[in-house]
Amino acid sequence: MESVVSISNVRKSYLMGRHELEVLKGVDLNIERGEFVSIMGPSGSGKSTLMNLIGLLDRPSSGEIAINSKVINGLNDVELSLLRGKEIGFIFQSFNLVSRMTALKNVELPMIFQNKDRNERTNVATKILKEVGLGDRMTHRPSELSGGQRQRVAIARALVNDPAILLADEPTGNLDTKTGEEIMQLFIDLNKKGRTVVMVTHDPDVASFSKRIVRLKDGEVIGDERN
Questions:
Q1: Which CDD domains does UniProt cross-reference here (predicted)?
Q2: CA angle at residue 84 from 138 to 114, to 5 degrees?
Q3: 3-class DSSP state for residue 159?
Q4: Are 170 and 91 in contact (CB under 8 A)?
Q5: Can you give the pLDDT at residue 2?
Q6: DSSP string across 48-80
């Protein structure tokens, strides 16, 4: 199988005043195309730092990271940003939608940065909103949508540039149990269609929907099991 995320002996430290805090301590992780992986761990385990590295929002202090076979070490900020826009679809706990825009315009937004023309943006956004079950909500603004519907808009937005990885940070954290399960079923359906899903969560019930659980503690991988 082809690796979509390859992490080799990655360390990440932050300077806290005069002291250096090592958050990741030599992490090795390989995620293959089409996997559905949960990254779990308590607060301070390094899971958010690892997510930021996979999402190309930060750089490792040492070690090597490759996303979709492209080694990121040595890329400048512009190259990193272009790679992020092309290969990573982000889904956040707080949805991060633009309140004044309709669902359709929110979903079109990432395509503007990829210089796609207006007709293509509208056609792609319409198609994907229908796929996530929001064909009748495209002209609604976030304030007119339920939490579950807002997260579906966020998932649609993450899909529009056909990324190699869907990266979800606590995607059910702001949802009730029933709505959270519906969103997790949507992730399962997307994964069955071949999407690679990497999810960060502290909730074992949410993690149980994935096919593989990677556990972090004190900046190290302490478990890697398949469901």
A1: ABC_MJ0796_LolCDE_FtsE
A2: 55
A3: helix
A4: no
A5: 87
A6: HHHHHHHTTSS--SEEEEEETTEE-TT--HHHH
Give the span between the Cα atoms of 36 and 209, in whole angstroms: 9
Q: How far apart are CA 220 and CA 41, in angstroms?
A: 10
For residue 126, which amino acid is it? T
CA distance 113 to 86: 10
Provide the pLDDT for residue 113.
80
Q: What is the mean pLDDT of the chain?
A: 94
Nearest CA to 150 among 163, 165, 132, 167?
Answer: 132
Question: Quick one: how far is CA 106 from the chain centroid?
Answer: 17
Amino acid in position 49: T
pLDDT for 24-81, tens place per residue? 999 999 999 999 999 999 888 999 999 999 999 999 999 999 999 999 998 999 999 9
Q: Confirm if 152 and 142 have CB atoms less than 8 A apart.
A: no
How many residues are there in the chain? 227
- Enumerate domains of the chain plus CATH numbers: 33-59+76-226 (3.40.50.300)
Query: Do residues 106 and 153 lie in contact, with contact meaning Cβ atoms separated by under 8 Å?
Result: yes
For the whole model, what pTM was predicted?
0.93
| Amino acid type, 192 | K
Span 128-169, pLDDT tens digits: 999 999 999 999 999 999 999 999 999 999 999 899 999 999
β-partners of residue 198 are: 37, 167
Measured in whole angstroms, how far is the alpha carbon of residue 142 from the centre of its chain? 20
